[in-house]
Amino acid sequence: MGLLYSKPLEIFNLDFSTEWSPTPKPCPLFRLPFFALLEVFKSLDPIELFILSQCSRKVAHCVHIVGSKKWKLTVYVGSKCIKVNNKYRLFIIETTQKSSWRYDKNLDTWFLEYQSIGNSKLELQYVISQVQTAFKCPVTSFEYNSVNKENLMKFKSCKYLKLSLSLTMHDLDVFMREWKTGSFPNLQYMLIVRNRVRSTGQILGFGKFNLSRRDGRRRLVIDENLSVDCSGGRDIKADNGTKATMQMERVFSDSFELFVWNN
Amino acid sequence: MSVENAPVVDVDEAAIPVEKKMYYRFESNDKKEFRVSELAIQQSETLNRLVEAMGYTSEDVENKPAIAIENIDGKTLKLVFQWCEHHKGEAIPVDDGSVPKIVEIPEFDAKLMDIDNGLLFKLIWAADYLNIVQLLNVSCKKVANMAQGKTPAQLRRVYLLPSDEEDEAAKRAAQEAQDPRAREVEEEFEERKRQGGNSFF
Fold first, then answer.
1. Least buried of A131, A188, A252, A255, by fewest C-beta within 10 Å?
2. Chain A touched by B123 (CB under 8 Å)
């Protein structure tokens, strides 16, 4: 009895020689069966997979089959680093030479060296867009070294904000009034430290004493890997009915947190 | 045990325990015959289901023709059955969904896969076709390891990946092959454009 098959393998019986040759024969990746190709993709780490995606548009369009839509991207704007799943790093650095990729074995890190054209932010944005195109996942968080109250309003699409800013009670009040109108629809959690908080002044009508009080514990689950505990503060409601809690002094004496509850 | 001496074709009768073991006979597309133990066959979901469905007795195995595997050659099938014999009785791994997938290549497997890429490629096809999960895992891991520390330009060479320009050229060639008039029309269109014509049609 013969073993029936729907796809004859003969068509893939390429004429490979087993004799010794100075250069190894290539391994035609896209002639592998689908599940084997998927296994190869799964065995690559996210940065290797991203580099593979840079081989051509065709490759870039298919690497997401590993399930990368669920991955987390963190962008460190100051150090121009993209981190995937809190582990795999890609640094983008300037060079006077021609743009190239460099792998540092000791650091186990990839560097994308690019020839400076005067605006390094453009290069970072370009690489982020390439990563997002390949993996089809959103940037989970941006980490900035220098943010001021003026450009705080730029983070309207962010889900998670952790900032070191010098804001007064008035600044925080202005921000929260903006949040209340629904300007930050994706925001689930925000932590601002190094505030210049005083006993006087109010945020949405609540003073520092009210916002610092501790009563009960509630856990905010941001995603499967990230959750934060709210231990008191004051509950508020946005104009669209979204419920949230503001709390001060939980993390540090100068910290302000906003927990947005999904339901 | 060296890879070459793995018990695929030759069975050491003295080493067989007292209880009766069933050995099936398989034949590759180049007519090479292999005797494989029942336990080793369990590593292949496809073959395991096949022999279960056939319900052969020990006599049937000897009297009936060997089971033909018509799309795998003897060299590849030998590697497959060597692998199955070495790993017989081991649990079939279940994918836990982690990326990158953690796959260790054991020493035996590394030696077995110390082959040229052409044969490795055939081994992967066979592992996929015969549904041998762990063999597919380790062989694909070996292919993935080729990417370590490589730039996109190097990866194009290693994995034989065409660049965007080559893809475009192949697409054009395929279109032209389908419609031989396409190139003539395109050239005529370009010519008229050069001559300053407003409309082609």
1. A252
2. no
Q: What residue in A sits closest to B148 (Cα-Cα)?
A: A48
Residues 70-99 (A) with a CB less than 8 A from some CB of B: 71
A146 touching chain B per CB within 8 A: no
> Which residues are CB-contacts of B120 (< 8 A; sequence separation ≥ 6)?
A27, B113, B139, B142, B143
**CB contact at 8 A, B8 and B85:** yes
Q: Which residues contact A247 (CB under 8 A, 6 or more apart)?
A: A211, A212, A230, A231, A232, A233, A234, A256, A257, A259
Interchain CB contact of A240 with B (< 8 Å)? no
> Is a pLDDT exceeding 80 seen at residue B185?
no
- Give long-range contacts, CB 8 A cutoff, 24+ apart: B34-38: B34/B8, B34/B9, B34/B77, B34/B78, B34/B81, B35/B8, B35/B9, B35/B11, B36/B8, B36/B81, B36/B84, B36/B85, B37/B85, B37/B88
Mind listing the pLDDT tens digit for each residue in A185-230? 989 999 988 777 766 789 999 998 899 988 888 999 987 778 899 9
- Neighbouring C-alpha atoms within 13 Å toward the C-beta of B35: 12
Total beta-carbon pairs less than 8 A apart between chain A and chain B: 167
Q: Are A208 and A172 in contact (CB under 8 A)?
A: no
Tell me the pLDDT tens digit for each residue of B17-27.
444 578 999 99
The tokens 């290539």 sit on which residue? A26
User: B78 in contact with A at a CB cutoff of 8 Å?
Assistant: no
A2/B68 Cβ within 8 A? yes
The predicted-structure confidence for A86-128, as pLDDT tens digits, reads as follows 889 999 988 877 778 888 888 888 898 887 766 666 788 888 9
- Rounded to two decimals, the pTM is 0.72
Class of the CATH domain delimited by B13-148: alpha beta
Rounded distance between C-alpha atoms, residue A183 and residue A216, angstroms: 29
Q: Which residue of A has its CA nearest to B49?
A: A3
Extents of the domains making up chain B: 13-148, 164-194
Whether residues B162 and A48 touch (CB distance < 8 A) is answered with no
